[in-house]
Specification:
Number of strands: 11
Helix content: under 10%
Shape: globular
Largest sheet: 7 strands, mixed
Oligomer: single chain
Distance between the termini: 40 Å
Structural class: mainly beta
Number of helices: 0
Radius of gyration: 13 Å
């Protein structure tokens, strides 16, 4: 079993930056693909970014060039650096773990990101 705990959400103005972090329990972290999904009110959950155990990454077209996913296997953490934030980035962001470029086996509880002036 893998437990995921997110941190770093909050309120930011358009054009600002936020960094989300996800801490994972368990000794198999380095073998897992990790991801960030988001769900806005009234919309379906969508993949934002993912990173495999080998370091390959996958981004939603809407965040390419603005968001960067990274992982630290020594600390069992995965981070999402979000720059040039837009109001349409407002959503609950959830950390996930699993396999492939759309990992969905394990989930964190989610953290709110609100982009508003």
């Amino acid at each position: 079993q893998v437990q995921l705990v997110e941190s770093g959400g909050g309120l930011v103005q358009p054009g600002g930056s936020l960094r989300l972090s996800c801490a994972a329990s368990g000794s198999i972290f380095r073998l897992l693909a990790m991801g960030w999904y988001r769900q806005a009110p009234g919309k379906q959950r969508e993949l934002v970014a993912a990173i495999t155990s080998g370091g390959s990454t996958n981004y939603a077209n809407s965040v390419k060039g603005r968001f960067t996913i990274s992982r630290d296997n020594t600390k069992n953490t995965v981070s999402l650096q979000m720059n040039s934030l837009k109001p349409e980035d407002t959503a609950i962001y959830s950390c996930s773990a699993g396999s492939g470029l759309s990992p969905m086996t394990y989930w964190g509880q989610g953290t709110q990101v609100t982009v508003s002036s």
